[in-house]
Amino acid sequence: MRAANSSTASWLVAAAFAAVLTISGGCLAAQSAPDSENGRYSMTPIPEGVLRLDSRTGTVSTCTRSGAGWACYAVPDERTALDAEIGRLQAEVETLKGRLAQAPKAAEGERRIEIPLPSDQDVDRVMSFLERAWRRLIDMANRVQKDVSGKI
To answer: According to the model, what pLDDT value does residue 28 have?
Structure first.
């Protein structure tokens, strides 16, 4: 009876060992599955190779085949550059606001635009010019009238 118990026990041990191997093998297979199988990467063919999107990080990479194998390089992210430029401009605006706040403010009464009036000499020069122009216009009209009346 002891032989029967020892064969049964060894059979149970073997079955338990097989079950443990099956379970641990399934876990190892699940852990060692490539990232592309569990949906992390999305691949799209392009003329140069493949465009790869990492669904966890949002990084886009171009993958190309070279003599040494495949190489993937991250595509520059425009959003990062835009955010950096927005930050730089906001800092510049704050600096300019600070300078403007420190500048001495002129009183409202001091803000006047003064236009100098022409002198008497300037007015006399303009009047002389207008008189000469008027006389020339009248002389020209008289000559045209004489030419027209002489031809009729």
So the answer is: 44
